[in-house]
Amino acid sequence: MGESEWEGGFDLPDDTWVLLNVRDDGAPARAALAVAERDGENATLYAEALLPELESLHAAGRRQGAAPFAVWVPETPRQADPLIPLVAYVVRQESPDLGRTVEAVAAVCREPHPTRLGEIDIREVELPLGPACRVREMTLAAETDDGRYTVAEHVTFYVLAEPWPEGILQFSVTWTIPGLGDAFAEEADAMAHTLWMARRESDAIAG
């Protein structure tokens, strides 16, 4: 069955999280408008400053084929870039060559990667959606305008989703605020427990 016949998602922790539909070119502008409508005299300026990041993240999510793709927009603007320091998204992946097992996924994750920093933490966990390989790691992210590199931390779940035996469901949470890793990792764990996936209704597919 084709991927288009499936849909999935996860619960957002609160209303500071914003969903970006990567298939909708107008999603970044609407997300910025929602921020502009928040309480506070500087909400409009905050939204204007956010728009370039929303557009960049939207494009990145589209390249990855992420659906859904969500970003965290803090109530109070950060005093440093990036203004949007936390994203969460789902991507569907093919099963490893060694098979659709947690062990096979873990073996792939252990392979060296040129941008990885330090040790990688790999665990087998059970989620309501199915067994998963949980990976926590730090990487060098994109180069900034002044030639520096941003350090990003990730918690990724590679889920053997029971409703979807054709491949692996990847759920990733990525952040760029140093010192808050454990708190964000806990939030990622909580969000992973809300993951769901189901086949679309046939009439919705036809439409």
Written description of the protein model:
The protein is of the alpha+beta class and 207 residues long. The protein is built from 5 helices and 9 strands, in the order ββααββαββββαβα. A 7-stranded antiparallel beta sheet has the order 2-3-4-8-7-6-5, with helices on both faces. Strands 1-9 form a two-stranded antiparallel sheet. The C terminus is likely disordered.
Quickly describe the structure:
By secondary structure, the protein is an alpha+beta fold. It is 28% helix and 33% strand.
Topology, number of strands: 9
N-C termini distance: 17 Å
Count of discrete structural domains: 1
- Over all CA atoms, what is the radius of gyration? 18 Å
| Count of DSSP-assigned helices | 5
Main beta-sheet annotation = 7 strands, antiparallel
- Percent strand: 25-35%
Q: In one word, what is the shape?
A: globular
The SSE order reads: EEHHEEHEEEEHEH
Q: State the strand order across the main sheet.
A: 2-3-4-8-7-6-5
CATH superfamily: Mog1/PsbP, alpha/beta/alpha sandwich
| CATH architectural arrangement | 3-Layer(aba) Sandwich
Oligomer: single chain
Predict the CATH topology. Answer: Protein Transport Mog1p, Chain A
The overall pLDDT average reads 90
CATH class division: Alpha Beta
Low-pLDDT runs of 5+ residues are: 203-207
The amount of helix comes to: 25-40%
Helix/strand-derived category reads alpha+beta
